[in-house]
Design a protein that fits this description.
Shape: globular
Largest sheet: none
Number of strands: 0
Structural class: mainly alpha
Radius of gyration: 16 Å
Number of helices: 5
Helix content: 55-70%
Length: 96
Amino acid sequence: MGGCNLQEYLYRYREDKNAFAKKKYRYRLTESAVRREGYRRLGLRGIKPRLYTLKPLVVGLIPPSLAQMLKRRRDRRKAPKDGERKKNYGSAYRNV
């Protein structure tokens, strides 16, 4: 059995400027442990699951402003085009 992600955006939300600064490192440790256990239960092995397990820990080491900038850059590349956004999203609350 393997995991998968949804191919369409179901809703959008906004994080304020302090969202990255609010997340304490101990919660990142917990997130890493949850990821590790989830990957183990899904039977995912190899280097990729290990890297994704370490991701919250690495992100916790970089300054919050840099993490936010990188996330925004990634989201801009992944975001659907304006025409698709209206077609797929409609209202931000309708598809939740």
